[in-house]
Amino acid sequence: xxxxxxxxxxxxxxxxxxxxxxxxxxxxxxxxxxxxxxxxxxxxxxxxxxxxxxxxxxxxxxxxxxxxxxxxxxxxxxxxxxxxxxxxxxxxxxxxxxxxxxxxxxxxxxxxxxxxxxxxxxxxxxx
Length: 127
Prior knowledge:
Elements: H1 2-18, E1 22-26, E2 32-35, E3 41-43, E4 46-54, E5 65-73, E6 78-89, E7 93-100, E8 107-108, H2 114-126
Antiparallel strand pairs: 1-2, 2-4, 3-4, 4-5, 5-6, 6-7, 6-8
């Protein structure tokens, strides 16, 4: 009985923490991309947002998801990854394997790419 209660409690916590993410895109490998719309901020013409990727198969390091904080430029369709967090389980759960605070640089989004689709979603929502 105790194990059943722990399992139910764990599921409730998982669903509650996952409730902020909205699916916005899938790529050709069936990886799924999400945005946390509630945390989008527009500051000085830039959009700051959190996005999450769930991988269908583990990457070369064994991670199944990552969450990133991004600065987006809607006018020039480019983004800058400000930080990234990699996890062993989907939905940003499991063990945090890497916490990359990278040297941010602007990257232009290819036409019809997942990056372009995600940024368009953010820009359309926040404008």
